[in-house]
Design brief:
two-stranded antiparallel sheet
Amino acid sequence: MRFSYKNLLIWTSAAAASFLLIASCLVWYLYHSAERTVVRMHEDINKAKQVYVSTDTDVKTSVTSPLLVSKGKELAPFTVLMLGVDQRENDHGRSDTMIVLAVNPQKKSVLMFNIPRDTRVIIPGRAGMDKINHAYAFGDVEMSIGAVEQFLDYPIDYYIKANMEGFTRVIDMLGGVKVNNEAAFQYDGVSFAKGNLSLKGEDALKYCRMRYEDPRGDLGRNTRQRAVVQAVMHNAVSLASVTHFHALLGALGDSVKTNMTFSEMKQLVSVYKPQSERFTTTEISGKGAMIGGIWYYLVNATERSRIHNRLKSQLMQGD
């Protein structure tokens, strides 16, 4: 065939069209595969019974999904309860970790705090008071959310439940996490030096779990858990390619459950991701006490009011 620029243009155009077709098919496949994965992750709760109305009349409660609400540039704030569940064979498990996230896109900020696992609370549907981490064993996610809402006097919009063992795979897929360790310690055969550390999945899980050797006890462990969660979130939103995002969802599908839909996740990634730039943390202050031979973490009414008002201030729309 005689060479000509016309033939070159035809071949180039055909190659480009073929490439675009293949790329489009790949994106379509990954998109729908990701959607199927999210469907597998999805585990709804009974919102008809779950809607919490705060005693604070300034706190607005809505059954509308906040992630799908946006008017102009006003993106709705929302709350998330992260449950790290420690499940073993023949055991339903308890919520080993409870972290609340309050996201306000207008302020470009996220408030994050732990609820200590031994906090003595009223668990809706149960008689008397008990440790808040027992709520999951009694009534799964719905009862955990109910206990948290009752304790904070604030509604929870979304939940993310993660099996802590499976979560290590996600950390490994993200290339590990970087944390600043405040004090050197050893736990389960691993030495954690003071200072900046790069941790893979298994070591990151051990880093989060150490409790009794920490001078601050559960509060120290909570600080380490928040550092790892923040690092995971930072690494996850930094994923640029659709293939990496798809692989990440695949790993999450076996170890994570959430009431977020695929549409809400898309909104979270495309709209909220660039807005959430600044993390702030706080601790829930209390004291330990033995009651009926059981150790509890007691939080008084003044401290609960402070946390409630901190949440309220964080989630207020506007300046």
